[in-house]
Amino acid sequence: VASTVRAVHIKEGDPVEQGQLLVELDDSEARASLKKAEAAVSQARAGRYEVAKLAAPAAEAVLRQAELNHAQAKRLLDQEETLFAGGVGTRAAFDSAKTALGLAASQRQAAQLQVKAASSGGSQAMVAAAGVAQANAQLSSCQKLRSASARPFWGRGRSAAPQRHRVAFVG
């Protein structure tokens, strides 16, 4: 961990015990990184929530409307086909109804894809979940980095009995 020494609590040659605070490092950068990572996690979770709670229901509503439009276009085409076949309707009205049905079918297909993308296994949901996972990984990394700056420099002792050490500074 690269950091600036904020305070030194011992002098050269002082006896020290395991776990005693020797130096304090400036952890302001680590704290800022941690806050940034926490904010990224919150933002990613909000994005995932938005997909799950807002995008999926909105996509389903669009699909329902597209299905109604398709059914109405199909009825209109059937009606225009009957009129045209009986010599009462025009070719232009029949062709227009055919075009409207094709458009309604395309809109329904697009809405179905939108629902699939917003569903729990869809691409929008997967992207949102990946964003949360990435933000959590960054947060974990920042937490580990911050806790590393608080560990004793000589590592962990193997026994519970206090041990006395001498510290020498190379200068």
In brief:
The chain is mainly α and about 170 residues long.
Written overview of the protein:
Helix 1 (28-85) runs antiparallel to helix 2 (91-118) and helix 1 (28-85) runs antiparallel to helix 3. This protein has helices at 28-85, 91-118, 123-148, and strands spanning 5-8, 15-17, 23-25, 164-166. It is mainly alpha-helical. It is built from 3 helices and 4 strands, in the order E-E-E-H-H-H-E. The chain has a two-stranded antiparallel ribbon. A two-stranded antiparallel sheet has the order 2-4. The radius of gyration is 34 Å and the shape is rod-shaped.
Backbone CA Rg:
34 Å
For the biggest β-sheet, the strand order reads: 1-3
Low-confidence stretches: 154-163, 165-171
- Largest β sheet strand count, sense and barrel closure: 2 strands, antiparallel
Pick out its properties.
65% helix, 171 residues
SSE blueprint:
Elements: E1 5-8, E2 15-17, E3 23-25, H1 28-85, H2 91-118, H3 123-148, E4 164-166
Antiparallel strand pairs: 1-3, 2-4
Helix pairs in contact: 1-2, 1-3
